[in-house]
Design goal:
The structure holds two protein chains of two kinds. By secondary structure, chain A is an alpha+beta fold. Chain A is built from 13 helices and 15 strands. Chain A has a six-stranded antiparallel β-sheet. A five-stranded antiparallel β-sheet of chain A has the order 7-6-5-8-9. A four-stranded antiparallel β-sheet of chain A has the order 1-2-3-4, covered by helices on one side. In chain A, strand 14 and strand 15 form a beta hairpin. The longest helix of chain A is centred in the first third of the chain and has 39 residues. Chain B is built from 30 helices and five strands. In chain B, a hairpin with a 2-residue loop joins strand 4 and strand 5. In chain B, helix 1 crosses helix 3 and helix 4 runs antiparallel to helix 5. The longest helix of chain B is centred in the last third of the chain and has 30 residues. The relative contact order of chain B is 0.06. Classes of the chains: A alpha+beta, B mainly alpha. The interface between A and B is large, with 52 and 53 residues.
Chain lengths: 445, 532
């Protein structure tokens, strides 16, 4: 394990927690500390009478601490990690684990085996019937919603989209709420995004609204054509409509597509929408060359649990949710965090290559978005106040507006304006740079 | 996106009925049979969007790409130095500028660059700082840091500063700041710069540059000023205010540099009006101590007339302040007091500073009555010359003779010893207002004894309820306090039994002082030990 301070900062539940933890990253605070091949531990005197016992499992990023803090990881766990990050020479010699650490780590390795509930055939078929009925009910409900939405879209087209700016936000919210009632939250999301367009800004809203309506209309058409689609297409459409995907089922599904690899954590992005935080993390299998998107959701009552840190390499098995273009997945099993990859990732040679690949993906899955690619020898330039990614053949793609000046600063600091291999995602017609491959390492922007 | 489809979608099928034949062939061929135009358009939009998003080749850049590799020659500073910067940026604004300036000076002395992650916060902090600090920031962000400046939304760091051509291309204010920065760091370099383009400068800028030269005046400036004076200004009258302003500045500086021809012509001009003063003191008469005084005419004469005053040192030809100056010669004498170093008057009047200051302030001929109040008409001129020349002898006399509220303008210019002596009589609940008039960057740190006096007075005022404790008190103590200030603060708290008082003292005074002191200490450490 070789975390940097900035990586540890990402793990902190809030900035103040990291600041407090960092203060404890000094050996003088710790009565004892040590490191094995799988864990860090330390004993620190806190405000209580007894000292706190703190441990970090750095293979699967898990923490324990006997302190009463509800923050997770607590400042002691963060401090312990900072201690090892900043004092590599002094404290990084491997030692044997004390009993309390071994017990905790061994317990983590032995996953509890859930007792299989014995189910009779009768109960089984009854559960199936209920499940089938629930599915039918939902299909009927979604059907009704889709019909209403289709009608609403036709009305929009009849009166003309130039009327959109004069519509109140409530109009869109009302339609979105109706889609939620019809158990189609995916459709509600599209409608909401139509309502969130900045209609006051001159230029741009017309194409933006038409694009959303075009994709939504295509989805409605696909739903109406469900009976003629393959199972994997049906699953894909259901996901887009808003069927939730069960992580637990995927974890246990031995038939699901699963890949073992050394995964480079390319980047992470959090989006805050209506009290829900959506965290997207992109990984790239360095040997097999396959990307994966890990989605995590959090509310103010259930914070995000970061299990992967951008810029690190994890040895793991990833399972993919089924679909015509599998991208979203979960970490089924994580074996450890590596300092270097064994297989240097293969980069595409030019922007045209990744664009061709992207078009090929879009031909399979027209709603494709946020697809990661690795590309060699590109640099970031600014043309007429617009950021562009440009390759050695002078082909360029506009960079997504979320790429700010801070990231350009990082990029220029790493590269000095020289072309380097980079990880990007294609979002709409733009690219979002995630990081730079330099000197056999990957640096996140 | 296809225009036909886009236009129908925007205008609506009610107003723009669909003619299928007008749709592009590739889309038309894929459309299903629909019962309504709207359904048909919706399907067409889906295809058009797909084509719009994915059906285009990538753009090729037609501009020349900057492929230059940006290298750094200087090493990066260690992490602790960047962290110190972040601490500085978190302190109150009133003290941030001074600490930031010290930190930048330290970085320049070490010839190091700030770490990349601190570059943007540093640049942003510079947005609210004066130009000279921004110029210092540019030197520590390195070439890579400079590369991002043109893309910042705020245009405080203009391209002219970046390219180093601010002197040729910058605004008047940027050029003024640039010149000030150079003069403060290298007077000769500044002089060379101004001399090079002097004739092409407009008169307004000339006046502003002369003001800067006056603030940073050095003997090396004499030749330049003498050349200017003799070639352009000597013996000439100017009607434009800005031209006269330039002449006044030049004369003021020449007089400070003891430029004899000008001194002599003023002395000779005034000599007919210098007469021995009849002393009322018997002791003076017995000891034969004689002081001169000025006997001015009530009307214009060969010397006291507008044309001569303009030609001599650039004074206004008309008395523009009849309220204070009953006669024109008084108006012109005021103008002279404003620009002529005070020792000239002590020599002319053959007296010491105290007598000369007393003469100009208290002589019956130099008083006027405004709204029933008797006002010394040369008071402002005397304060003005104090500020221009930082004449500590004159300041020392004036603070004894003029009302407290009139002293305030000269407080920033007092030597620390003079200031502390003055404050001995002004330690009170209102003292923080006066203390904050000082500038901690101008060697205005309090002595240990004075720090103790201020803190004792402060704690007494708190105890007596004359003051409410506030964080700005802590900041003032932190700005100016002696390096032993923390010990003194701890001594005060030991005498207190009130827990709430102690807690507030700790939070609002001790902690900010401790934080700022430790920042100052760290800056000093890094400044004085390049190995750290």
């Amino acid at each position: 394990m070789n975390f940097t301070e900035s990586q540890i900062e990402i793990l902190a539940p809030k900035p103040t927690a990291f600041k407090e933890g960092k203060k404890l990253g000094n050996a003088s605070y710790w009565q004892q500390f040590g490191k094995s091949e799988r864990a860090l531990w330390g004993i620190i005197q806190g405000s209580g009478a007894s000292p706190y016992y703190t441990g970090v499992d750095f293979n699967e990023l898990a923490y324990r601490c006997t302190c009463p803090s509800r923050q997770f990881p607590c400042k002691h766990a963060l401090g312990l990690m900072v201690l090892f990050a900043n004092n590599a020479k002094v404290v990084n010699a491997l030692t044997s684990e004390p009993d309390w650490v071994s017990e905790w780590m061994d317990k983590r390795l032995t996953k509890p085996i859930q007792k299989e509930k014995s189910i009779s055939e009768e109960e089984d078929s009854s559960a199936d019937r209920e499940k089938e009925k629930r599915l039918q009910d939902r299909i009927e409900s979604v059907d009704a919603g889709v019909k209403e939405l289709d009608l609403w879209l036709r009305d929009l087209i009849r009166i003309g989209l130039l009327e959109l700016p004069s519509k109140s936000p409530g109009t869109f919210e009302k339609v979105a709420a109706r889609m939620i009632d019809c158990k189609a939250p995916g459709l509600a999301g599209w409608v909401k995004s139509l309502g969130k367009i900045n209609y006051a800004a001159s230029g741009g809203w017309e194409n933006e609204s038409i694009t959303i309506i075009g994709k939504l209309s295509l989805l409605i058409k696909a739903w109406n054509n469900m009976s003629n689609l393959s199972e994997s297409w049906q699953q894909t459409i259901r996901n887009l409509i808003g069927w939730s995907q069960s992580t637990k089922e995927l974890m246990d599904d031995s038939n699901a597509l699963a890949i073992k690899d050394e995964w480079i954590v390319l980047g992470q992005e959090s989006e805050n929408t209506e009290d829900i935080i959506i965290q997207r993390t992109w990984l790239w299998g360095s040997e097999k060359g396959k990307p994966v998107l890990i989605l995590q959701f959090a509310t103010k009552f259930s914070p995000l649990q970061t299990s992967v840190i951008p810029g690190t390499i994890i040895e793991a098995e990833i399972a993919y949710f089924p679909g015509v273009h599998p991208l979203r997945g979960i970490i089924r099993k994580q074996r450890g965090i590596l300092t270097k990859w064994k297989n240097t990732p293969v980069y595409d040679a030019s922007l045209e290559t990744i664009w061709d690949k992207h078009i090929a993906h879009a031909a399979i899955y027209p709603w494709i978005n946020d697809q990661p690619y690795l590309i060699n020898q590109v640099r970031i330039i600014n043309i007429q106040k617009s950021w562009q990614l440009i390759d050695t053949e002078n082909k360029m793609m506009p960079i997504h507006p979320s790429f700010g000046i801070e990231k350009y600063m990082q990029w220029i600091m790493i590269t000095g304006n020289a072309p380097f291999a980079m990880a990007v995602v294609i979002r709409g017609k733009q690219v979002l740079p995630l990081g730079v491959f330099a000197d056999q390492t990957y640096i996140v922007l | 996106m296809d225009d036909t489809i886009r236009n129908i979608a925007l205008i609506g099928t009610d107003r723009s009925p669909l003619h299928k034949v007008t749709l592009p062939e590739p889309i038309r061929a894929r459309l299903s049979d629909h019962t309504t135009d709207e359904a048909l358009i919706l399907e067409a939009i889906s295809y058009a969007c797909f084509s719009h998003e994915f059906g285009h080749p990538l753009a090729t850049s037609e501009v020349i790409i900057d492929e230059s590799i940006v290298e750094e020659k200087l090493p990066y500073a260690r992490k602790e130095i960047s962290e110190l910067l972040m601490d500085i940026l978190s302190v109150a604004i009133s003290i941030r500028q001074s600490l930031l300036k010290s930190w930048l000076e330290m970085m320049q002395k070490r010839s190091e660059l700030v770490l990349p992650e601190s570059v943007i916060p540093l640049i942003q902090a510079g947005n609210t700082q004066p130009e000279d600090i921004r110029a210092m920031i540019i030197t520590v962000i390195g070439n890579r840091g400079k590369k991002i400046l043109p893309f910042l939304p705020d245009e405080k760091y203009t391209t002219s500063i970046l390219s180093g051509s601010v002197w040729l291309e910058g605004t008047a204010e940027q050029r003024r700041q640039h010149f000030l920065h150079i003069r403060q760091n290298d007077q000769q370099k500044g002089l060379d710069l101004i001399r090079e383009n002097w004739n092409t400068e407009n008169v307004r800028d000339k006046a502003s540059f002369l003001r800067i030269i006056a603030d940073t005046l050095a003997p090396i400036d004499l030749q330049f000023l003498e050349d200017l004076y003799t070639s352009v200004y000597a013996g000439k009258a100017f009607q434009k205010t800005t031209e006269r302003e330039c002449k006044l500045w030049i004369c003021h500086m020449l007089l400070r540099l003891k430029y004899n021809p000008l001194l002599e012509s003023i002395r000779q001009g005034l000599s007919p009006y210098v007469i021995p003063k009849q002393s009322k003191s018997i002791l003076d008469r017995v000891l034969g101590r004689k002081m001169n005084e000025l006997k001015l005419p009530d009307t214009h004469d060969q010397f006291w007339n507008g044309k001569n005053m303009n030609e001599l040192i650039g004074l206004d030809e008309k008395n523009t302040d009849l309220l204070h100056f009953d006669h024109d010669p008084l108006f012109w004498l005021n103008g002279m007091i404003e620009i002529i170093p005070f020792h000239f008057w002590t020599e002319l009047l053959q007296c010491d500073y105290k007598q000369a200051a007393d003469y100009f302030l208290n002589n019956d001929h130099f008083q006027t009555t405004v709204k029933g109040n008797r006002i010394p008409i040369f008071q402002n001129a005397l304060l003005g010359i104090c500020i221009l020349t930082r004449d500590q002898d004159l300041i020392g006399q004036l603070i004894e003779m003029i009302p407290e509220e009139m002293v305030i303008p000269i407080i920033p210019f007092m030597k620390q010893s003079v200031f502390e002596k003055y404050m001995d009589d002004h330690l009170s609940a209102g003292m923080f207002e006066i203390l904050n008039k000082r500038n901690e960057h101008d060697d205005h740190q309090w002595s240990e004894a004075f720090t103790r006096k201020v803190i004792n007075q402060f704690s007494q005022d708190l105890n007596n309820g004359k003051l409410h404790i506030h964080s700005h008190h802590g900041l003032t103590i932190a700005r100016f306090g002696h390096r032993k200030v923390l010990d003194i603060l701890h001594e005060v708290v030991q005498d207190q039994t009130n827990a709430s008082w102690q807690a507030q003292w700790q939070t609002l005074i001790v902690e900010p002082v401790d934080k700022i002191n430790s920042i100052k200490f760290s800056i000093d450490q890094f400044m004085n030990n390049s190995r750290l």
